[in-house]
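S2.1 Query sequence (Beta-lactamase-related domain-containing protein)
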Amino acid sequence: MLQIEWHSTVNQDFQEQLKLIIGHSLYESETPGAAFAVHINGQPSLETSVGYQDIKREVLLPNDAKFYIYSITKSIIATAALSLVNQGQLELDVPVQPYLPNFSVDTSVTLRQLLSHTSGLVDYGETSTYGDAVKATPSFPWSVEAFLDFAKTQGLRFTPGKGWAYSNIGYLVLRCVLEAVTGLSIQQLLQKVIFKPLSLQETFVPNTLYDVRELTPGYSDFFSENQLQDVTRFYHPGWVAHSVIVSTAPELALMMDALFTGKLLNPLVFEQMLCPVHILGKHPLLNLLGYGMGLFLGIDSPYGTVGGHVGEGPGYSVAAFHFPNLAGSRVTLAALANRERHDFGLQLVFKMVRKLMKIQIKS
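Output structure tokens follow.
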């Protein structure tokens, strides 16, 4: 493998080449813009953007544009949960039912099972009940109680620990556990254990449409077939049951890099986060795809065990991943695009990976 000697900042020539590659992808996918950031060996090396905020392509997308990071939020919530494990406030393999007086399941569910999607709790994302409700009242989401009631009516998909199924409801239950244990809202907890220690200025958990008034426009045809709409003024963040974080490419890359470089969790606890509890199978980009606790894992890849998460929902496609051995360096990449397309954020991340593998930056 080519050994790259990285400069503290990626050189201008490389930036322009990368912008051309990303710009071509945006053009092909009819996506207005994307912001991305690169950390190399623990240091920010590139923070830039390509394209536009708006579908008319009149306003350039700033480097610090704000996006919903959607399910990458799970990685951040998982990090907060494991910080409580590290402090002795929670245990991974003890039932969480005592913290949930208003929500019970027939068989005990543990923290580890919630984190790893092995709880058996249902998901709502692919159901017509949920989809129809979002379309009917996009500005008025279900309450936490309504989401939990939905889960109760569906029952468990399998005995906890005996299967794997991605579950947003599982992470809502996790959120409820964390709030019960700490006495803090999920917003306050994440601010305390992650956002404030990392000095993040633009990253937060919104509660209302007013909170997200500065989001970069995000385009989707979910609400009007064959017509792209900016969803930011009417799609309420409460439709993401476990909560959703707003962040920028630079701050998202910083969070993910801090997690993988030992700035947020005890190494022994973090190692468990990286242990695959389920193998999902072959993946065109991540090789053999697994899931740990709050992280998708690319197992046996040319770059070591790659870890991170994707996020998709109305208006945005995003991804953030850490590569432990990318041409001899530890590299964290974040890409955020302002149109909803399956795995588009992940595709942008790997376009950056392939470009980084081809160059040698002299110190």
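The chain is about 35% helix and 20% strand. Residues 1-8 have pLDDT under 50 and may be disordered.
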